[in-house]
Amino acid sequence: MSDTLRESLLVKLGQLQCHFTWKLRMNNSDLDDVKQRLQDSIIIGGNHQGVPHNQLAYINYLQGNYEEALRDLEEAERRLREIHGDGFERRSIVTHGNRAWLHYHMGQLSEAQSYLDKLEVMCGPLTQGPHDTAMVPEVWGEKGWSLLSSHSQCCEEAKECFARALEEDPDNTEWNMGYATALFRLAPSSGIPENPEVSPSVRQLRRVLELDPGASVARVMLALRLQEFQQKAEANELVKEALRTSPDSPYVLRYAAKFYRKQHDADKAIEVLKKALEFTPRSSILHHQMGICYRKKLLNLTKNKGSRDPVMEAELISRCKHHFGTAFQLRPSDVFAKLDFASICLMNGESDRAEEIYNDLRSLEDIAPDEKQAIELQLGLYELYHTKSESNAIHHFMEGLKIQRGTKQGKICYTKLEKIARRQITRNPYNSRAWGILGFLHREAGENSEAVECYEKALRWDRGNEEYLSALRELRPST
Fold first, then answer.
1. Closest by Cα among 380, 421, 429, 427 to 403
2. What is the pLDDT, as a whole number, of residue 23?
3. pLDDT tens across 273-282, in order?
4. I want to staple 268 with a disulfide (CB 3.0 to 4.6 A). Which of 57, 162, 260, 407 is the partner?
């Protein structure tokens, strides 16, 4: 095939809707973990079985396993035909697009063109635009699921995909569940309205259960949201029913374990997680949750200083380290598991190991805002309580607060900064740095008049400080 024809083929491939054109965000170090999660989802089963096989094919392509990727796509096609019957063609648009791309990368250009031709025939009756793809609900839905499986920062885009799918097929249980899942993950951890029915994720999860009363995963997800609203009675009943009807579902077990942990029943959560690990033993998420449960037991034990049990303490520390360590071994980019591992090291007197982890995390660049904020918060706590450097702690807390407001981590940064500043002012009312911190906090909270007052006091004892002058210029632009 001539270079001109090859370039023409590449242009057509670029117009397809499939994993090769969706620009899914995946950390290369996490590909094995994503692959494991997709394989687990295949074992668990479900109605959108072509989706994990399609995404597995793409990951195998990224890892250079072209023949394995081809087998994944063949299996995706087989499963879609088996499950969806008359709806097979619409469901196979993404699969055919993936096959066209994969054959192109394998140098099999005539095969790639063959799949483009198939898509032209399949999509012609489905779209008024170009016939190489059709944005039918099945394509929007598969894109949504693929985004949810790839990266936490893709949830907003996934939500939009499911919304587009539901425009044409509003009662489809699969797209409604996808939309609910995206909303659930996007639900804020703070600032929750008093009425739970105002919550979009609560409303959508109830919608899923109206359409499919047997949707146990939606049931236990709804329980977690209601738990945040203190709707304890309904939440408990939802979890019990989900465990009764789907006792072997790893997804149900994972969410149920989180529910019990948040209910301060770590032992029950551990019992449930152990069962989930029997089905998916290489789940980084389950190992991380297990570590959090053992840490909760450890913290409860160390609170009672009058009757310390060194043997039990050592055992719990060992279990925490094992599960946190396993979590980030399975998923190397797991910032939260590494931070949790470091915190246990500090509790165990392993400061060098904790500092090594913190130094590695400091150098990370392309990470999500919540991950970056968590790192700054933990560095601040480390400097405050272990190196006893209030100055360094202030720097990290301020950097953390700048990243995003309204989060749980941001609130901790705010509280720590306020306590440090007020303690310093109590010792020395002329401490300009402390007044500057309070000015910064009021400014972040949108309390401009209080911020101006604090910055003016800071300048009174540190004349000419450019940071405070700049802040005042922004707060009083007319002066």
1. 380
2. 87
3. 999 999 999 9
4. 260
3-state secondary structure of 228: helix
For residue 262 the two structure tokens come to: 């948040």
3-state secondary structure of 441: helix
For 430, half-sphere exposure in the C-beta direction (CA atoms, 13 angstrom radius) is 4
Sequence-ordered list of residues with C-beta below 8 angstroms from that of 263, at least 6 positions apart, any chain: 227
Dihedral class, residue 45 (left if φ above 0, else alpha if ψ from -120 to 50, else beta): left
**CA angle (197, 202, 208) in 5-degree steps:** 125
Which pLDDT score is estimated for 479?
46
CA distance 55 to 18: 10
Check whether 394 has a pLDDT greater than 90. Answer: yes
What's the pLDDT score for residue 189?
A: 47
Q: What are the tens digits of pLDDT across the range 79-88?
A: 888 888 877 8
User: What is the pLDDT, as a whole number, of residue 190?
Assistant: 43
- Contacts with 268 (C-beta within 8 Å, 6 or more apart), sequence order: 260
Q: Name the residue among 225, 223, 229 with its Cα closest to residue 244.
A: 223
- Residue the block writes with tokens 């969706």: 22
- Please count the residues of the chain: 479
Look at residues 352, 346, 407, 356 and name the one whose alpha carbon lies nearest to residue 377: 407
DSSP state of 321: H
Q: Which structural domains are found in the chain, ordered by start? A: 1-168 (1.25.40.10), 368-427 (no CATH), 428-479 (1.25.40.10)
Residue 390's Cβ-count burial label (10 Å; 0-12, 13-18, 19+) is middle
Say whether 155 sits in a helix, a strand or coil.
helix
**Strand segments (E) across 210-357:** none
| Per-residue pLDDT tens digits for 428-446 | 999 999 999 999 999 999 9
